[in-house]
Design a protein that fits this description.
Elements: E1 2-10, H1 14-23, E2 29-32, H2 41-44, E3 49-50, H3 60-70, H4 77-96, E4 122-123, H5 129-142, E5 147-150, E6 153-159, E7 179-184, E8 190-200, H6 221-228
Parallel strand pairs: 1-2, 1-8, 2-5
Antiparallel strand pairs: 3-4, 6-7, 7-8
Length: about 240
Amino acid sequence: MVKRFDFLVIGSGIAGMSFALKVAHKGRVALVCKSGLEEANTYFAQGGVASVTNLIVDNFDKHIEDTMIAGDWLSDRAAVEQVVRNAPQQIKELISWGVDFDKDANGNFDLHREGGHSEFRILHHKDNTGAEIQDSLIRAIQTHPNIEVFENHFAIEILTQHHLGVTVTRQTPHIECYGAYIMDMKTGKIDTFLSKVTLMATGGIGAVYQTTTNPLVATGDGIAMVYRAKGTVKDMEFVQF
């Protein structure tokens, strides 16, 4: 069967779900995850989210510098600057989706300071911030009329010009993506999901190791699919926990 959407999102962590919520007003969204919506690295993150919120003592330049130092200057500075400067707006967006960050007696964010940070800038929800974010986004996703969730569905292959008989190599300019082949894990049936935009938000490869704090679904399937589709894969030496 062929299913058509405006956006195809593969992965149900904070990246996939937040993207789905951001674009859902523009068209129909398919959100695909190979287990349940809550089974993602996001859910198991405990610490919190770093953002400049107390402008009396903190600023973007401090946060950028702290991040570059913590990354041993390997981080892409342009990416760091974009993330840091846009963090406050993204915090507001998370709150609009129902995320409840802890506050002090005066109603201000109860900011913590973690390793590598020169100021108190960690927003948190008790010691289960990831679960709070994941649960809030799930509720927002499930009540949005333009988002259709496909749990227990396994993405198999990204569709490109290769599937139209065109030879595609890593040197092919402007490789196009038309969607993906996706298997319903309950029935074994494979459907073609066609989409104008496909977002790979499948997380990392932590669970390929015998010992890991990652959930068992973090086996790098999305990275492998992009690689097979002749996409660019980089920074594979960085593995979380």
